[in-house]
Amino acid sequence: MGNKRVMIPASEVDLTAVNYIPENIQAPHLTGFWFKFFVKLAEAPGIGSLIMNHLKKENKIDEMLKYTVIPEVPMFKPEYPPQEPEPAVVSLEEDAKPEERVNLALKCLPEYDPASNWSGDSTASFRYWKIRDYAYAYRSKFTTPSMARHFYVIEEFNNKNPTAPLLISFDPDEVRKQAAASTQRFEQGNPLSILDGIFMAIKDDIDCYPHPSKGATTWMHEVREVKKDAVSVSRLRSCGAILVGKANMHELGLGTTGNNANYGTTRNPHDPDRYTGGSSSGPAAIVASGLCSAAVGTDGGGSVRIPSSLCGVVGLKSTYGRTDMTGSLCDDGTVEIIGPIATTVEDTILVYAAILGSSPAERISLRPSVPCIPNFPSQESSQSLEALHLGKYTEWFNDVLSTDISDNCENVLSRLSEKHGCKTVEIVIPELHEMRVAHIVSIGSESLCSLNPDCYEGRGARLTYDTRTNLAFFRSFTAADYVAAQRLRRRLMYFHMEIFKKVDVIVTPTTGMTAPRIPPSALKVGETDLHVSGDLMRFIITANLLGFPAVTVPVGYDNQGLPIGMQLIGRPWCEASILRLAAAIEETCAEPKKKPLQYYDILKGN
Fold first, then answer.
1. Model-level pTM greater than 0.85?
2. Pairing relationship of beta strands 423-426 and 271-275 according to DSSP bridges
3. Which of 146, 279, 358, 442 is catalytic?
């Protein structure tokens, strides 16, 4: 047998014998000169392979992929058994017009009177303006989309020194044209939907014509022309949304901090000396700063949820295949989705209703259930909360850098029990190390496959140093490694589907740390810090590798005033359940929100 390890079938694993093993990443933290020197070595023939093989050995990746017999057959895309229908929901027809879905979603929201907030006490505790507030202000002629201050504030923000742009492609004239058209529709009494006149940003790896899609590189637009909107963007446009431009991001989505040495690193609105998280750094920051009501990002390894959590907003990753990825740079992977970021759960629901809808190919291969949203006004809505069983793996839940994170999330669970009757159930999740390995091999191999045709003629050398480091690591994976990772995917899917027979939602902190500080030397050349990445991604990758829906909702702040998010992972296709629970947390269980240091009141101009 030698060093070979043989796994027993997943169905025979004794869960009572599972021990939680904290992550122990072996990798250097590098920036500045030594980082550039390391990248030169990592890309060099011979020595580069030795370095990457050493890293894989130290982190037990080869042990898992090359020297382990995995009995399960590969699962190259998430596959799910049929699911029980969700209670107290309204179905949204995928083939309906996006504006029709949005208008139906609007009817399902809780009762709300924007007039009372518009004329209320301005000294009251901080709150973000909702989409319904903007719609009320437009209808009441308090303001118009053309009168909004977005144009001036975004230009001012992008011209700051040091550079920390929210948008890396912004055409004020194009935005004014959209705003003028929306204003005219309101004057004629014919807004397209509740999203008409609502300012939104699009991550730079999603097509939004006429802007280029660079993926925050300096060259992607040279090899890939944008001729039309991505499917999700066209759906938002048909609802009347005003698309302000392409939001900054971690280059090619291959990072968790949001660092970008090409255009400047977007800063966290709660503390400009800290990262936003990534890779959807610009989308989360522009929403948290009040400049946009919502944004759209991609999530292949927490890229919507991590920055949403660190910036104190809501981010939804839907079930794999729920949204059509056509027109994004990552439209051929098996872990990515396009998802909304917004300041409230209800605004997240409205944007989600607009962009949802599987591609024709995925309707055949994935057989998605009919998309649903929670019907809050129904009498069954509160009863369905009482029936929820929440799965908590305590040792994993508590594996965070600061107890402020786990304590805040634990308090939310207690309040959910007290106020809504939700029951917390202790669970065990086996093979979390295997989960991390399978995810990095899957997303790394798929990213490399997508990029290889475009990295010739010296373009690869024009990528940032941290992207080049990641790609050098990904090149060390073999075809056999990729197949082994898909065997692990099937195995891990079995464990989780068994867990979902006992619970409705798995609850975790969203991240294992709050927003990390930006090393000054990292602004110029970037950095590699896999310890930070591990802390940020600790609870994230389950939903990506296995395709489950997940949402992060703000629940409080640490002792430095930095936002803490809580993650809710749902059964396949059950977005309504996690959104209902997120709304309950937001309404009755979370701490009051604090005003970010960088916040702009666009409606009232404060």
1. yes
2. unpaired
3. 279
What letter would DSSP give residue 456?
Answer: T
Is pLDDT above 70 for 447? yes
What is the chain's alpha carbon radius of gyration, rounded to the nearest angstrom? 23
Give the three-class secondary structure for 62: helix
Active site residue 203: yes
Alpha carbon distance 71, 8 (integer Å): 7
| SS3 state of residue 88 | coil
Active-site residue identified among 182, 303, 384, 577: 303
Q: Which one-letter amino acid corresponds to residue 565? A: G
pLDDT over 90 (residue 157): no
Of the given ranges (103-117, 158-172, 492-506, 545-559), which has the lowest mean pLDDT?
158-172
97 assigned to active site: no
The 3-class secondary structure across 228-271, one letter per residue, is CCCHHHHHHHHCCCEEEEEECCCHHHCCCCCCCCCCCCCEECCE
Catalytic residue among 203, 214, 392, 593: 203
Cα 595 to the center of its chain, rounded Å: 22
Domain residue extents for the chain: 89-108+128-432+495-589
How would you classify residue 489: left for phi > 0, otherwise alpha for psi between -120 and 50, otherwise beta? alpha
Q: Which helix (H) or strand (E) holds 298?
A: strand 294-299
Is 480 buried (19+), middle (13-18) or exposed (0-12) by CB count in 10 A?
exposed
Compute the distance between CA of residue 213 and CA of residue 204 in angstroms, rounded to an integer: 5
**DSSP label at 340?**
E
Q: Is 303 a catalytic residue?
A: yes
Angle at alpha carbon of residue 316, lines to 312 and 320, rounded to 5°: 150
Lowest-confidence region among 91-95, 159-163, 587-591: 159-163
Superfamily holding 89-108+128-432+495-589: Amidase signature (AS) domain (3.90.1300.10)
- Provide the Cα torsion 472, 60, 570, 194; round to 10°: -20
Both tokens of 340, joined, read: 């909304």
Give residue 213's pLDDT band: very low, low, confident or very high (50, 70, 90).
very high
